Each structure stands twice: as C-alpha cells, then as structure tokens.
Amino acid sequence: xxxxxxxxxxxxxxxxxxxxxxxxxxxxxxxxxxxxxxxxxxxxxxxxxxxxxxxxxxxxxxxxxxxxxxxxxxxxxxxxxxxxxxxxxxxxxxxxxxxxxxxxxxxxxxxxxxxxxxxxxxxxxxxxxxxxxxxxxxxxxxxxxxxxxxxxxxxxxxxxxxxxxxxxxxxxxxxxxxxxxxxxxxxxxxxxxxxxxxxxxxxxxxxxxxxxxxxxxxxxxxxxxxxxxxxxxxxxxxxxxxxxxxxxxxxxxxxxxxxxxxxxxxxxxxxxxxxxxxxxxxxxxxxxxxxxxxxxxxxxxxxxxxxxxxxxxxxxxxxxxx
Length: 322
What we know:
Helix content: 40-55%
CATH superfamily of the largest domain: P-loop containing nucleotide triphosphate hydrolases
Structural class: alpha/beta
Strand content: 15-25%
Strand order of the largest sheet: 3-6-9-1-10
Shape: globular
Oligomer: single chain
Number of domains: 2
Mean pLDDT: 88
CATH architecture of the largest domain: 3-Layer(aba) Sandwich
CATH class of the largest domain: Alpha Beta
C-alpha cells in the first residue's frame, strides 16, 4: 500500500460516515486515526450526541464483524468474554466446550462502559491489551483487527463506576463529543425526521486496515520530534514539569503508553496530511485526545474547574521543541 491509497481509503471512510453523522469532523477524524493505529477509543459526551450512532455507522462502513455490549450493573465478566458450557456428544459423553462471548469481534461497542461494576470492567483489560481472552486456563486469540470503541456519559454519575486508571490507560484516545451548532442541528432534524434514511457504503475491510496499520508504523519520525515527545510526556509529571498548571493541578502524569500513542497518532496525522515525515504540529494535534485521560488531576483542579485540556495547552506552550 502507498500513501495515495492510504489517503483515499481514509477519505472514503470519512465521506461514508458523513452521510449519516452531521458535523463532528474532528471526532470522526480522531476515531479514524485511532482505528488505523490499532488502538481503542473512549467517547465521552452527554446523551443524544450520536456517539453510539457514529460507532454503528463505522461498523457499516468497515467490513468487519461488529458486536455491541450494553454495560449494566448486573453484567458479569462471562457475559463479555464467554464461558465453558457442558455439552453431550452423539456418543453420550459429556465435555466442556467454550462458547465465545460478544468480545470476539473485530469492532466492539462498549456502550456506557462506566455503568458496569469494576469486576466486569476488568474483563476487558486482557482483551484490550493482549487481544486475548483467558477462560479456565485456556487462552483464546481475538480476531484481528480488534478495536474497542466505548462510550460514557459525563453528567449522570448515579449508578456508575468510574473507570480505573489502568483501564483508561489502555484507550489510545479519549474523545470529547461536543454539542452540535444550530446549523448542524437543523441538518440533523432534516436527516432524521424525513422519509429517507441515508445508507453508507462499505469503504474498507479488515485486510486493508491491517495494511494501513503496518504502513503507519513504517513512517519515520525525526529524532528531535521523538525527543520532544519524551520531554512532553515527562513534563506531565508535576515534579519534572516546567508548566505551572501541571505543577499546581496534576497529581500524576502520563504513562509510557501516552508517549507511544503520541508517536502513532502523529505518524497517521502526517500521512493523512500527505506527508511521510512527522512534525511537531502532528504531535500537538493529537496531544489532547492522547493525554486528557492520562492526567490524574488533584482536588484543587476540580475545585477551580480546571480541565485537562487547559493543562495540556499550557504544557505544550511550556515545553520547548528543541
């Protein structure tokens, strides 16, 4: 695969998704970057903004096996991973056989993931990191490619369980889904209350996505940009940061996974811009979705209503490029 084919496939995906989803170009682009990087995405926004619809539309545009898991407080880990069941063969003998759960798909929608208990949320950890599932000492490989796109509502906290930092860290990006503008809302009404429903067409398959992932990893990154990423991630920790906001409001900074996500996101951003080299601007373009869920803020930040995005902007302004 060459860079021209790479850009054509991504443009086709965005165009097909745009037939259903009004606006939200930045959200669509960020989710697409995560998918091409082979990472998982957490979409956060108030109800009704089309988070689930976006993921469903992606499943229609991408020729992949799709599965939806509705997270609820009574959901059990085996409801996600699958379990061994007793079956009787034709000869009358009984044996345990593994019945795969809904996580065995290429594209998994984890809807309202913060409504399940921590015990159930932890069932996704191995799948998201190792892309395997272990049941009764047997390990099963998940299909490739494998992506988890999760949604959560930041407003309604009653009956929810905050995601553990270990699980948040396994999401390549966290995307904030914003409320549409008045013009976009008018277009949404026209599309959803009329007689015709737009139908997107297939734009890519699993084999193409695997090739795109391989190509993205081959994009060279200059040493000075790589060093900049290292300084940026180290500076998310208050004891090593030149940023006054990080020093004041951050309790703990990003893990090394944040640096890996910055590299992959920047490489794909460069390819989408028609370049086969990574710039500082590419890193800064993916800094917010990469780091906003990896910064653990202290009570003072919550009391002063200081967001992670504000801190990240100050961090970028404080860390020198050379």
